[in-house]
Amino acid sequence: MRALSLLFLLAILLSSCGEDNRNEKAVNAVIEEKVQQRVADFRASRMDRCLRDANEEASTLADSILLLQARLNRDTLSKPPKPSKPERPELKTRKDSMKVGPILRRNSQ
After folding, report:
1. Per-residue pLDDT tens for 34-48?
2. What is the C-alpha radius of gyration for the chain, rounded to an integer number of angstroms?
3. Model-level pTM?
4. Phi, then psi, of 53 in degrees rounded to 5
5. What is the C-alpha to C-alpha distance for residues 6 and 26, in angstroms, rounded to an integer?
């Protein structure tokens, strides 16, 4: 009986020493999930950077087009010359009919 129980115990030990694929499958599933998450995050960040770069380039291109259009449409005529000053008018003086004298008279003392 002792030999039978020893043989049974040996059979259990040998069967438990076999590969356990449950842990390996769980670990691989977690690794695959993490990899997929990192790939999704990487794609999202690349897409954001790509959109930001495209917006900057489009803005620069639009600005240069607007500047070129403004330069082509600007008035090419030169400024008109300043008008010349008119001649000074001749000063007309009135003839006084009154005689002008001193306001305060000096007393001769």
Report:
1. 999 999 999 999 999
2. 54
3. 0.43
4. -65, -40
5. 34
Q: Which percentage of the chain shows pLDDT scores above 90?
A: 35
Instruction: Give CA torsion, residues 36, 40, 42, 44, to 10 deg.
Output: 180
- CA-to-CA distance for 76 and 97, rounded, in angstroms? 62
Q: In 10 A of CB 75, how many CB atoms?
A: 6
Give DSSP secondary structure letters for 22-85. HHHHHHHHHHHHHHHHHHHHHHHHHHHHHHHHHHHHHHHHHHHHHHHHHHHHS--SPPPPPPPP
Residue 18 tokens, joined: 């076999």
Residues 13-45 as b/e (b if ≥16 CB within 10 A, e otherwise) read: eeeeeeeeeeeeeeeeeeeeeeeeeeeeeeeee
Residue with tokens 């990192």: 38
